[in-house]
Each structure stands twice: as C-alpha cells, then as structure tokens.
Predict the 3D structure of the following.
Amino acid sequence: MPEKSDPLPNRILMDNSAGRVVFNHGAHAEKLGIDCLTCHHDAPTPEQAGVSCKSCHGLEFDASFKGHSYTMDPSTCATCHHMTLSHKKWGHSRHTKEFKLECTSCHHGPQIEARPQNCANCHDRKTDMGPILSLKNAVHTRCASCHEDAFRKDDMSSCATCHTATASRDLQMQGRLPKSALVPCSTCHETEPSRLVPGVMSAYHGLCISCHEKQGGPVDNCAQCHTK
C-alpha cells in the first residue's frame, strides 16, 4: 500500500525581519482552487511541494554553484532548464547517397582515424580538450561548414533546424527526467543568470502582490501582510 501523504497545512507562519506573515494556505489551495504549481513552481508534479524557496532564490551563480547538479534534486532541473533539445533524424544515408558526400566530409580523414568512427569516441560530450573540441562544438562546427544559414541566428529558432525542442516540465510530468542537451540560459535569455532568479523577498513579493493586485488590490501597505 502507498504511504499516506502529509495533510496540507491550514496556515503557515512566515517569520522575517519585516514582521511575521500569516499565510492562509488552506484558503489559497482549497477554497480559491489555486494550482499548487502556481507557487511551488519547481515541483515535478502537483502532488509534490518541491524544495524550500530559499534553495533557489537568493543563490549566487558563482564558482561554488557549478556543482549544483550534485547538490540539488534532479527533479528540479526543469525549473531553470525550461527546454530540452533532442536530436532529429538528420539523414545519414541521404547525405552519402543523394548528396554524394564522402565519409571524410564529416568524419576525419585517415591521417586522424583509420576508419570512420563515432564522434563521441574522441570528443568529450561537454568539455573542450585543447584542440579537441567538445562533442557539441565539434558537430556544430562540422555542420555549419555546409549549413551556414542554420547557425546565423543565436536563438531557439536556429536550434530547431536540427533539434526538437521539448518543454522539460512536460517530460517530468510523464515521469521522465530531462537528460539530453539541457539548454543553457543564454540560448533564450540575454539577461545574466544572476538576474534571472530573484531574491527571496523579491520572489515572495512578486508572486503574492501580482496575484492580489489581479484580485482587486492594490497592495501598497506592508501591514496588509506583515504584523509586528
């Protein structure tokens, strides 16, 4: 039998320097019918609450953050990595038969490898190793030598020429984790990553105030939420 889940809290006390906030969780979740993912936007499914807000909001994207894939739950990947790129069938036989391309047009000549082999045998999937490019950079460089038009735009529309873009959230809802080619922030966002994720206070205020203003606000007095 599955384990019983914890009951939804009725009210939550948020303690902070501006004064405590009593948040009526029951009224928002049950009476108003607000979807769980509206606030718990990192949760893989509506049944899971996700991580604490402070786990992501307020972080500095510095050198210490590079190991976040080991310290953060993989189920939260889709929160920041919104899109996953998967490979389309690019047509190996079409290139060799219809376009009459020699193997060495894409694979290296015999001076490097005696016979054509899988690119990943030599190229690391993520990291350039001196003159040996990463797998991504090596493939992009080789394809761009013929398909210059597909690499002119530095946005998702150019990626879609060779890749199928899928929402990472959709994969998680299907019980699958986004794996291949997690898209870096710069693919879609011109803003620095450190400015994409608001601090804790800005996150709370942005979420709560924007919703209350839509319900007929305005929210222009701290004492409307904070108590001393």
Strands lie at 12-14, 20-23, 83-87, 163-167, 226-227. Residues 12-58+198-227 form a domain with the Cytochrome C3 fold (CATH 3.90.10.10). The longest strand covers residues 83-87.
